[in-house]
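Lesson 9: reading folded outputs for more than one chain in a single document. The general rule is that every protein is listed as its sequence immediately followed by its structure tokens, and records are never interleaved. Here is the first one.
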Amino acid sequence: NTPVLVSNVTWSGAGLTVPPSSFLPRRAQDMSTVDRKTTSTPLEKKKKSKTLTTAQHLPKLVVFDLDNTVWTPELYEFYKTPIPGKTLHVFPAALKALKELHTETKWNGSMVAAASRTGEIEWAHMSLKTFKVDKDNTFDDLMSFKVAE
């Protein structure tokens, strides 16, 4: 499975993952230092810090771009209203990622939003309200933010 980029969170068949803690910023005092004047000075022992739990590494907000990330083709390519499931199709990895965000308890502290620069705002809202994540919920039901311009 090819991982799909969803912000800096990826989905790769094994579920959603976030970058390892090595990508997270560290405080300067937690980093080892070297005396640059000599090569014989050993590295200072790294100060032990509290280990962060997985929930602390998860993003507070996961934003999905719509066109060519959640669904295809892009909405501007339509001359008339797209028909979700017939002329507009959801990428399976995007659907799986949304399902995991909705069902896995580790994501309870995270919010979900959609972003798009489409000129077809009404079609985007209609599609979000039509595509099902499961039998009871549409994409729109899972969105924490609902702003239309």
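And here is the second record, again sequence then tokens.
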Amino acid sequence: MDKDGDGFVKTARLSGPSKWWAVGYIPVGRGLRQGDPLSPLLFVLAEDTLSQGLNKLREIRETMPLTSAKGRILGKIPSIFVTIINKTKSKMFLGGMAQERRDHLHHILNIQIGALPEKYLGVPLIAGRITRVAVTPLLDKIRKRITAWKGKLLSFQGRRVLIQSVLSSIPVYNMGVYKWPSSVIKEAESIFRNFLWSGNPAIKKCVTVSWDKVCKPKEEGGLGIRRLRELNMALLMKLAWHVKYKEDDFAMFMRSKYFTRDNEPIEYYTKSSLWPGIGWALHEVTSRSQWLIGDGNKVDLWRDVWVGEQSIQQALQLSTTQLKNCRSKLSSIIHNGVWNIPPPLLVLLQHMGVDTENLPVIRQDERDCSVWKEDLKGNFSVS
């Protein structure tokens, strides 16, 4: 086996016994044979080589496609790890540039220029706010799904299960990206309600139980059907959490585009289909999360909640304009892993009701990280 570990992937060599000595080795193509006792060990060796290659890629921030076993082993980074773009299946979307430049880019890249609206991975890409027209196809899909069932032949419990497990899951993927209009959510829940009580989405049946009570958890006397508005909020909170606190390319791009220099979300209108939903959920994310103090380089001294239940800005009811030039990080009051709070700020914290004798423990050798208050492990999840 060579040092790259691809000899056992590409080929194998067999040796057979004769009357007095072994005969071989005879080269055989197409690699190991099924059931070979060496297979598990060689698989581990190949996995280790692949793992080292992937770790090296992560360090240099490269991407790659997987290759077949007929080629060289994936650990050979320079010759194998290249990004391949299928130009016939790709489109580029350009905005805010002259037609001459668009044509020039098309000539250089030889990639088709797309136009919005466009569907990508099942989600429509739209310029501007999401309107009723954009999500109406999902309502039609819900109606078609119900039409295929024999609603009147199903028991009440059976219809409840179908609403919970099937109908409520249809809009989940779209709701994880966009904020749905209230009128569409109201119509979707009307379909659910009619199907639950009458077995027909078009027939309304008068009942004495309110839909709010029906949608309460079973522990509180309801049927456990999720409200779509709350589902939409929860899914967008997951996206907002990612944008607010993560450090990957997507999160940093969104913050650079839709956040101010003070790391505050913009409040003015922008022609985006994605941002209205994220901005809608950001307040809930911020109010239910807090910082776990590390070196203090990521935490805003004035705007972030790093001690108590409020930020200094919230406690003093300071406007964004008043804090325009205040960009200090928490690290400015930490010295050698110990709190070094100026007396005026110490008095202010005491006035806020903070126990200054029991401030959060500083983990000087670690980075600041955000935690979800309502989870014992501090993790944010949607279930």
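What the second record shows: Residues 7-80 form one domain.
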